[in-house]
């Protein structure tokens, strides 16, 4: 009897170790967690989506003329610019502040100590950002169409332009947001440290003030940063040829838009790889 049991045991196949989920699958799961936490914070949801809408309503009510004598209204100009600012807000600002808070309260440190691959955390964050940015663009565009006669493009080439400007812009902005998350010394200072340069950038990049009305030196300064080019790319999609006359060069320069956004994406990746910290300063 004992020999039979031994033989049976010896003949049993070895147990197959459970296969761990991939980093992408874990990132997708993490994105669900991030999205649920975001929508549970109702004040954050309202502020994130309402802020650009309120700005569009204010500027659309104050400025009612046609800049540069073109057929483009000021409201249409602001709609396109605020779409660019909305994409950068959802990525650069939200990621920079959110990761700084995660680092300060120990969330990053705890996650780093788990078997979850570090890349899954960033995949989850970026997928969440993509959802928020898409919703923000959809809301702003819907308001522009209904209230300000913005015409969505009717040809495929403009939608292709929209897609690559959106993806390149959100990639560059997300990587920069991850990189600058290490600047605040604490969660309490994160909002001020990251929001201030973003607000300044909006003023010099043609979001709040039309780019054609800015001094040349300020336009040259803004040309070093991605927001100016994101807004320019979105203006090419939603304003068409009529709006090109309002650009400093008289054209949308889409080749330079792609080049600058790609360069910032590459630079942001280098900054993330060389400067990102999982621990707060007080943890060493």
UniProtKB/TrEMBL annotation:
Domain ABC transmembrane type-2 stretches: 43-279
InterPro entries cross-referenced by the UniProt entry: ABC2_TM (IPR013525), ABC2_TM_bact-type (IPR047817), ABC_2_transport (IPR000412), Nod_factor_ABC_transporter (IPR051784)
Localization of this protein: Cell membrane; Membrane
PANTHER family recorded: NODULATION PROTEIN J
Name of a matching Pfam family: ABC2_membrane
Protein name listed in UniProt: Transport permease protein
Lineage per the UniProt record: Bacteria, Bacillati, Actinomycetota, Actinomycetes, Streptosporangiales
The keyword Cytoplasm is assigned to this record: no
Main location: membrane
Domain of life: Bacteria
Assigned protein family: Belongs to the ABC-2 integral membrane protein family.
Keyword Transport: yes
Transmembrane segments: 44-65, 77-101, 122-147, 159-180, 192-211, 257-276
Keywords: Antibiotic resistance, Cell membrane, Membrane, Transmembrane, Transmembrane helix, Transport
Topology within the bilayer: Multi-pass membrane protein
